[in-house]
């Protein structure tokens, strides 16, 4: 922001009056006024580089379409095109200085883009910044356009760009959980429902389930982003296409597809498309779903690693930092805690998006800036959360195998596997006795003569307990007697 303190200035004028602009700045009078009016978030739109890149794509496509239909000359279009290409590669992003929270339905952002592109194009042509008689932000860079079609289109393109990185991180995180699932596939443990002991499973199954749920979310997010492909370029102010020459609508979408590589289509009803922002609710909901499932997984990791002496203590999370300023040696699950906090922020952002979508009136939603900010921040934070959970936590998790083995050996939940053989009532009675006496269920079953050791060992094979073995071919028992084996030909 050093440009605001520059001693050398140029004068730019709009319908309100004149403003002194730092001579080195690529933005102009509209951006200057917005910067003064919206010192709210103290975060410029440049914090979302995909948004800036998307805007450059939109302006580049518009310029090419205007050339194709004869609305702009080749010299100006070439210069505008070159400036957009540079911005797409990351140049001049520091010149996008308007705040992420702004009034005006995104006009400040659109004009920030128009001014930066124009002044860079002027510079490329050997003209001074602010020489708008040659290339004008409104008359040339914004030709055939309105904020009301360029802004929502840029948001949708930027979300598609940004989501790619998030999906990559989710996939890597899912792979890490799957790898742990394979590593822990031999370790039997007690499952839990409602925080109470349930039937046995493997630690590998538990971790593989984390991988599966994340991969399901990847598919849901891909479905959500496909809905963003419908855009309203050519709608201009309210969807009627005023000031957009004949042929522009068809040309700009074709160029925009070529430039972005996205499957974009023009909305069938541009008036409806300009006023409707419902697609952002769907997209936000998919982000929230993914975030809350990440938080659930993080909470499970915290529970499984709780202790290390007085908790579950089934797994060990990597020690990342000292956990207390007063309790020596304490280490906390700081990475899962941070991930859950990101999830809470995403859930809150979803509420913001929902309220902003509902608040649109008549032919335009004026609150798209907060929709854009909420969605971009959610994607950015989720991507980073996935990365730190994978790198700083999941990849370093180890299992406390001895503790898990001891827990399974004393768990009364194995009685569930015996209930079809000895009957539910007898099994419940044994479970109650085992809990009262602290004896092992397996020992009680044998001592009562309900099963011999060989039968017991067969039923309580770890693979069978965890559902890893094929069907055993035994008749279902409902009267408490031992099963009969099927003979050949019997049904």
UniProtKB/TrEMBL annotation:
<protein>
    <recommendedName>
        <fullName>aspartate ammonia-lyase</fullName>
        <ecNumber>4.3.1.1</ecNumber>
    </recommendedName>
</protein>
<dbReference type="Pfam" id="PF10415">
    <property type="entry name" value="FumaraseC_C"/>
</dbReference>
<dbReference type="GO" id="GO:0005829">
    <property type="term" value="C:cytosol"/>
</dbReference>
<keyword id="KW-0456">Lyase</keyword>
<dbReference type="InterPro" id="IPR024083">
    <property type="entry name" value="Fumarase/histidase_N"/>
</dbReference>
<dbReference type="InterPro" id="IPR000362">
    <property type="entry name" value="Fumarate_lyase_fam"/>
</dbReference>
<dbReference type="InterPro" id="IPR022761">
    <property type="entry name" value="Fumarate_lyase_N"/>
</dbReference>
<dbReference type="GO" id="GO:0006531">
    <property type="term" value="P:aspartate metabolic process"/>
</dbReference>
<dbReference type="InterPro" id="IPR008948">
    <property type="entry name" value="L-Aspartase-like"/>
</dbReference>
<dbReference type="InterPro" id="IPR051546">
    <property type="entry name" value="Aspartate_Ammonia-Lyase"/>
</dbReference>
<dbReference type="InterPro" id="IPR020557">
    <property type="entry name" value="Fumarate_lyase_CS"/>
</dbReference>
<dbReference type="Pfam" id="PF00206">
    <property type="entry name" value="Lyase_1"/>
</dbReference>
<dbReference type="GO" id="GO:0008797">
    <property type="term" value="F:aspartate ammonia-lyase activity"/>
</dbReference>
<dbReference type="InterPro" id="IPR018951">
    <property type="entry name" value="Fumarase_C_C"/>
</dbReference>
<feature type="domain" description="Fumarase C C-terminal">
    <location>
        <begin position="415"/>
        <end position="466"/>
    </location>
</feature>
<feature type="domain" description="Fumarate lyase N-terminal">
    <location>
        <begin position="17"/>
        <end position="348"/>
    </location>
</feature>
<dbReference type="GO" id="GO:0006099">
    <property type="term" value="P:tricarboxylic acid cycle"/>
</dbReference>
């Amino acid at each position: 922001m050093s440009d605001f303190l520059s001693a050398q200035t140029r004068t730019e004028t709009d319908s309100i009056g004149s403003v002194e602009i730092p001579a080195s700045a690529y933005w102009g009078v509209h951006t200057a006024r917005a910067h003064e009016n919206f010192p709210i978030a103290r975060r410029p739109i440049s914090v979302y580089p995909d948004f800036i890149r998307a805007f450059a794509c939109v302006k580049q496509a518009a310029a090419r379409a205007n050339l194709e239909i004869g609305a702009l000359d080749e010299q100006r279009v070439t210069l505008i095109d070159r400036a957009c290409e540079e911005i797409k590669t990351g140049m001049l992003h520091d010149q996008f200085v308007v705040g992420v929270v702004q009034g005006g339905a995104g006009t400040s952002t659109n004009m920030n883009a128009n001014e930066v592109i124009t002044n860079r194009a002027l510079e490329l042509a050997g003209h001074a910044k602010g020489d708008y008689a040659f290339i004008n932000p409104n008359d040339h860079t914004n030709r055939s356009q309105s904020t009301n079609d360029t802004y929502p289109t840029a948001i949708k393109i930027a979300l598609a760009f940004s989501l790619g990185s998030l999906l990559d991180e989710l996939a890597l995180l899912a792979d890490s959980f799957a790898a742990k699932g394979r590593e822990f596939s031999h370790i039997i443990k007690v499952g839990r429902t409602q925080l109470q002991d349930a039937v046995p499973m493997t630690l590998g199954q538990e971790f593989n389930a984390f991988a599966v749920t994340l991969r399901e979310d990847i598919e849901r997010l891909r479905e959500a982003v496909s809905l963003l492909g419908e855009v309203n370029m050519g709608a201009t102010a309210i969807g009627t296409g005023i000031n957009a020459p004949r042929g522009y609508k068809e040309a700009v979408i074709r160029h925009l597809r070529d430039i972005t590589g996205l499957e974009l289509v023009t909305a069938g009803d541009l008036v409806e498309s300009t006023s409707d922002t419902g697609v952002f609710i769907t997209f936000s909901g998919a982000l929230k779903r993914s975030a809350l499932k990440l938080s659930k997984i993080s909470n499970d990791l915290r529970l499984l690693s709780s202790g290390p002496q007085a908790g579950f203590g089934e797994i060990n999370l990597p020690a990342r930092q000292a956990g207390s300023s007063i309790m020596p040696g304490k280490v906390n699950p700081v990475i899962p805690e941070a991930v859950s906090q990101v999830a809470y922020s995403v859930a809150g952002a979803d509420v913001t998006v929902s309220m902003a979508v509902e608040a649109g009136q008549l032919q335009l939603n004026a609150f798209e800036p907060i929709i854009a900010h909420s969605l971009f921040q959610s994607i950015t934070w989720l991507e980073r959360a996935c990365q730190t959970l994978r790198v700083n936590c999941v990849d370093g998790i180890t299992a406390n195998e001895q503790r898990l083995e001891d827990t399974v050996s004393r768990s009364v939940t194995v009685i569930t596997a015996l209930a079809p053989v000895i009957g539910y009532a007898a099994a419940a009675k044994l479970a109650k006795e085992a809990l009262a006496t602290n004896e092992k269920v397996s020992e009680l079953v044998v001592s009562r003569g309900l099963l011999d050791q060989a039968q017991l060992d067969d039923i309580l094979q770890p693979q069978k307990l965890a559902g890893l073995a094929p069907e055993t071919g035994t008749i279902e028992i409902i009267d408490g007697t031992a099963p009969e084996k099927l003979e050949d030909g019997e049904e």
